[in-house]
Amino acid sequence: MDSICLSLCSACSKLCLGKLIGTRICDRALPFWIAKMSPLSVNCCGRTHISEESSVMNVDFVAIDRPRLIFRRARLFARVHRPYQLIEGESYWVDLGVPRFDILWAGKPVSVARAQLIATYVPESSEWLWGFENSTTPRVATEELKVAIGRVPQLAEQLAGRKWNMDADTACDLADWIAFRTGYEAMYPAIAGNMNTTVFLALTFIEHDGKPAEGLASWCLSCGEMAGRLSGRVIGGPEGRLLCSACAKDPIEALEFHEAEKPDFLAGDPGDEPSGAPLANVVCAFCGRRRPRVFLPETALCWWCIDRIRKLLASAEQAK
């Protein structure tokens, strides 16, 4: 049975550009408004495209962690969409003078994170500049991360260069990897408007909905809502990955549709797709395999794990 996409990602479809965001970067750090979408394609499929004419930093070490990075992105982007996908009422605020990152709904903070500036990136010139090398950035916004980066062996040589050339997907993957390897919960690629600059931020959340944060593991992978605020059942996967019953509804319906056409397909195991197949880095969120699966906006579930989720929800319903 083939995989299906319930929602196509940025590597599978055209970007929706041109939407305005009412978000502002602190004047002391980056003196401009975030008001225009960047054509940066933030890759959620793990596909890296190296431009032949560019002299790029060697980031081969990122590849082994790419599936894990995709799960980390799924958690964050379920809570706050990518800059070019923000919906009405949704925005974010960055103040590098504190430094902090706020996820806003209708102008009010719903989540607050400590922030560190990893790097800025200009797509037009393909230029990566370390945050601590940017003279306009407050020291408090980079000093903690700079110490942590210095302890990562793979980055020792790269720290010697002030600026590096790389393509947009490579820059996003590298920033995400740095946040992961230095102990931060997430990385967000904020957009700095008229200068068309991406601001890569390493985040650790300290507050959700006015209460102390319990980490990204407390969020549904698909809708981003906190487990404690959901009225329905929450299904747990490995490493704290959660899926709420509301978000399980569409995958279960897709499974039942396929079962109607081929009733016995779950009886066998077709094995995993080759590692070089399209979307191969987007493995099942619950079993980590590349069996045929349903692709959600930021993650995926294989048919067999969807069947397990369906059975768990049915058992819970019967136990009422």
Description:
- The two termini are 34 Å apart.
- The chain contains five helices and 15 strands.
- Strands 4, 5, 6, 7, 8, 9, 10 and 11 form an eight-stranded antiparallel β-sheet that branches.
- α4 crosses α5 (303-318).
- The chain is globular and about 60 Å long.
- It is α+β, with helices and mostly antiparallel strands and 320 residues long.
- The chain folds into two domains: 15-216, no CATH class; 227-318, no CATH class.
Question: Key features?
Answer:
320 residues; alpha+beta; 2 domains; 8-stranded antiparallel beta sheet; 3-stranded mixed beta sheet; 15 strands
Residue stretches low in confidence (pLDDT < 50, at least 5 long) are: 3-55
Strand content: 15-25%
| Percent in helix | 10-25%
Please count the helical segments. Answer: 5
* Succession of helices and strands: EEEHEEEEHEHEEEEEHEEH
Mean pLDDT, all residues: 77
Could you tell me the number of beta strands?
A: 15
Radius of gyration: 20 Å
The largest β sheet comes out as: 8 strands, antiparallel
Overall structural domain count: 2
End-to-end Cα distance, whole Å, is 34 Å
Counting copies of identical and different chains, the oligomeric state is single chain
C-alpha geometry: globular
> Could you say which structural class the secondary elements and strand pairing correspond to?
alpha+beta
Task: Summarize the model shown.
By secondary structure, the protein is α+β, with helices and mostly antiparallel strands. It is built from 5 helices and 15 strands. Strands 4, 5, 6, 7, 8, 9, 10 and 11 form an 8-stranded antiparallel β-sheet that branches. A 3-stranded mixed β-sheet has the order 1-14-15. A two-stranded antiparallel sheet has the order 2-3.
